[in-house]
User: Fold these one by one.
Assistant:
Number 1:
Amino acid sequence: MTESHLAQVNVGRIVAPLDSPELAGFVAQLPEINALADRSPGFVWRLVDEGGEEATGIRPEGEDDYLLINCSVWESVEALRNFTYHSDHLRVLGRRREWFHRMAEPHQALWWIPAGHRPTVAEAMDRVTRIRQHGPGPDAFTFRDPYPASLSRSS
């Protein structure tokens, strides 16, 4: 079996334009949090725009300028969980309601990929759609309902 890595995507609808005063606190922290991810144990890759620093300029097809996407690859669920909930990322995550609308439907998905694969925006959005339509399963799951790589048809 090919070595697997964990891909993650989360989307959020911002409360105002990125260059607005309402989002200034969020935007100011992006370089620090991105650098923290880049040097975190188990980090493999993250989606970035043409400038190579962040993904705030990338929009899923058919979406407006208020939907932001974050996509990254990690060595394991544990590595991603540690970054998300046991690093300075949690400080920013705790303030998400200041910058993002509460989403009524699922906005995150995790899935296993072959090591070396880099998910596209379309692929990532497909995983969010899978969870929205079918709930968590081996090909799109959440931290609450993780599946091992051995059950995934993707890895």
Number 2:
Amino acid sequence: MKSIIIASTSTLHGGSYLEYILPALKQHFQNCNSILFIPYARPGGITHDDYTAKVAEAFATINISVKGIHEFENAGHAIKNAEGIFTGGGNTFLLVTQLYQQNAMQILSETVKNGTPYLGTSAGSNICGLSMQTTNDMPIVYPPSFQTLGLIPFNLNPHYLDPEVNSQHMGETRETRIKEFHAFNAIPVLGLREGSWLEVKGEKIILKGSLQARLFKQNQNPEELEPESDLSHLK
């Protein structure tokens, strides 16, 4: 049975890394002594080793050890044998490119669908949808495909921001960008605000956290969803 947490972000303003979601992660990974971390999304300024160390420090507070996928010779083998998996944030284009380069995208999808507990934040959440086409990231590299893990039957827009009422910014809002996506695609898109996450248990998808999420469907007005909303029906 699928067991997944799909979080908008890893860090809330004023908090430490993963601090706000640690109680949920302790429950989520309760049967894991260790997890596999996928640092592929980080494009520069921090090495895979440093990124993994940052994750390990957070998970040590709930007595779980962490090893980076880059420490293994075979990424697919590491995924198949992991007790739990966490894919961190960064640039979604880079993450997707490296997963394909390592022949790991399909293996990761199958492994999580078969029940290995998974956590994604930011870019690691973007790849949980049907495609990565609703990311906020710049296309710094060219992935072989926009198709991602397909763990849920819709797309995500993590870090979703509402327009500021008094802002003088004249550029496109997140809502505008998602509507542009829907000019050519019928896939629903969930805008996840900071501090919100999805909890997936089998085919059940529940919105968690303290904030509403914004649901976009093609040719329909956006809908605000309250925490504890059930999105299992969404296709």
Number 3:
Amino acid sequence: MIDELAAALLQGERAALSKAITLAESVRSDHAEAADELLTRLMPSTGSAKRIGISGTPGVGKSTFIEQLGLLLLEQGHRVAVLAIDPSSTVTGGSILGDKTRMTHLSRHRESFIRATPSSGVLGGVAEATRDALLLCEAAGYDTVLVETVGIGQSETDVADIVDLLLLLVAPGGGDDLQGIKRGVLELADVIAINKADTATRAAAERTAEDYRSALSLVRPKRTKEPTEILLCSALEQSGINELWIHVLGLWSRIEQSGELSELRRKQAIASMWRTVGSRVRRHLEQDAFQANSFSKVAARVDSGQLASRAAASELLGSLGLDARLLDG
């Protein structure tokens, strides 16, 4: 099964890519083992794509912007994959919005791939298997992978741990919007784009750009030698997007040539390993019948104030045969 799936995926078959991502997202132990084997086998074929994160508050026009950017890249001969992280349904656990319904033109192109993935309650703007999906897209031959986050929130920063560059989209008149964007996101953004800078709202967009320049003066710059650029664009009028992409390409080339890109990806791979360890330990505690019973009892004591959270974590680790001193540091 894995041999056939890997071969089909390396040939760029979209059905194989969808199946592989579904396998990586599954929490079944046999699926996890198969996904581990598949990803390990495909690793030599990963790493060639530009990984771009796109974040912004709901309503800023992320999907429209991504569709126009994707169509532009397709015209230039690129193969584009979009990993869109949607809020999860509390009933089915599936994606609520479904970006294929909002990117109709892009989704129909044979050289594009769009995957809407439910966040499944995972904070940070991305889903647990988003990085795995990104690697699978690279193995399938997509040279540009765009990761659309759920929307700016308290923890909307994890996307920076899986992409090369982070683009923050902002709407004109974003003074109130600026209050809702956490400082950490501004510090992590490589580029800020004022979207919806249409003819009628151009003046408001320029004022918003000034507001963000002022805000950036109060936060630590991501790159001391290169201040975060603020650009204007309109996905509706299809203006400024090419100029924005040229800037992103220039920035990506500079971090590649300096060695920053390879170091960033190395750190991201290690961080992903530890996140997976944590998620699998928790899943074991929740799903194993004996451990789930123990987990519930410990959680109840924390809930009632009888046990401190840190002590509870030590007790749960002890039930797994792990030294509680692992929590130190």
Number 4:
Amino acid sequence: MLDLGEALVRELDLEQSNDVLGRWMAHHLASLITAAREASPHRKVECEERCRAAILEVWRHRNCLPEGRRPFEPLERVVDTLAALDPDATRPFYHRTVLQFEDFDDFDLPGESLPRRPDYLEKARSFDTTARSVIRHLIALAVEAESDKTQEWVRLATEAKLNAPDVALIVRLLRAGERIDPERQADTELVTKTLRSRLSEMEQFLERAKEIRDDLADRLARAEAEIG
């Protein structure tokens, strides 16, 4: 807990800033930490408890700290993007009602044999699945670019037993990034398997994207011919 407090003091070291409150918080925390470390045996518990309460109070309001001083600030946009896109959700990004007519694919009128139509709904679901994979990969890259400093904050928070929801989410993001990073993941076979799977999904995605591109180009050509 004291290590976490010292990290917050370093982060709030605003001597050159006009943030009077931030400077006061840094000095106040620093004085409490010094008192806790240097307290005599009969006052040590009291000083440590005061210090702990102050550190917890600052930590609870970590997302309200000044810009450039928030512990998880580098990943705030990642978390916001993840919340908006939710690539781990089981439902499609688009509303379920868009796909509710899938049961009509096999519907035939009595006495008639209709040619099988392309399964556009299945293609839509496939695109949705691949989109999630692409988003996971891009988010992993965004986390990887900011991981060093963030990992230190996660370590301090974990050792202080402060398992807040945002900390747990960032731990998941860091571990997801490790799955595709040979330098961070000791299990090379897992990295290889994950990358092969994602590459295969992307190849399928590109094939289907080309079909859609060709269809759009054909429709555009016909529309332009009618205008001309």
